[in-house]
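Protein modeling request. Please complete all fields; requests missing the sequence field cannot be processed.
Requester role: graduate student
Desired output: 3D structure, token encoding
Chains: 1
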Amino acid sequence: MTLPVLKSASLISVILLATTACAQPSSADANSNNVTKNAINSQATQAVSTTVDKRLRQILTQAGIKTQITSIVPSKLPNMYQVSLAGQLPLHITEDGRYVIQGELQKNPSERVVTKTPARSTSAQLGKPVSAGTKSDILANMSALKNMSAKTPFFYTAVPGVIWGATLEGVPFLLSDDGQYITDGEISVIENGQFVGLDEEFEALKNQSVFATLDKSRLITYPATSTERAVIYVADDVNCPYCRRLHQQVPSLNAKGVTVNVIGYPIYEASPKQMRGIWCQATEDSRRQAFDKAMLQGEMTPAPASCNTDHVTPNREKAAGLAVMATPAIYREDGVLYQASFESPEFLEFLGVE
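Delivered output (354 residues):
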């Protein structure tokens, strides 16, 4: 049984090992980065009760895990147990058997500055950005992780003490809320005895939180031209062929009552400068016209000489919390990501329009 999670084999090395050009790692960093797998996976010695052990084995077997379960011990991730599987990556599962993560834990090589145990999150915080204090404490314990900064998005998950984060490139990861352990797994759900995929409630609430932080004045908006029936957010790049194909459908979508909000999300090398020129246009109408030219005719509008501000990057950095893996990324206003072809009839069904 393979869990339905997206794996990124290079994530941990990106986070742990990236550094400035020509810098040499200190011996302490080198030692930390060479922590053996056995040390990383060493667990607390407290015993797991026979009742919990038996129940988790039954839940996982019923859900389709055929691989031999060799042990169940407390996980380094708060409020979870680590399930070791013969020949496979371990699982981390909550005591009630609902939430599961598959992946190795990596020990944070940073010096631990903040040692207090943070207040664990509640169900009301699901999908919300972590508090300023929690974020400050996490970052204080991440000095050796070169790709972490105040701009890194962190959100509360359904598991108290387990935090979802993403690099500014939008690659997701999970970490303990003391910042000590990181994994590139994602949280899956067992429901009615079966794996049902990623935690969709968390994903939707997280994405709604991201939308709420965006500077609406720096979205390029195409309002519905009939009674509004749906609102979508689209992460777009002017050089993305599929983005251009989707843009051809915008007038039709507007006529069907769909308002389209475009988030500038440059991923091609030439795109940041070109999109800056579009977003530098002085009025909402002129930005729309410049974007239309780029998407429909391939004609880029240069930035006015008077424009010295980058109006694309702030929203692009906030949108890292969407974990965009490819453009165009299309989201309903309720935070649900569309994961099929926008050229199929399913797209209009997804939007609730005909």
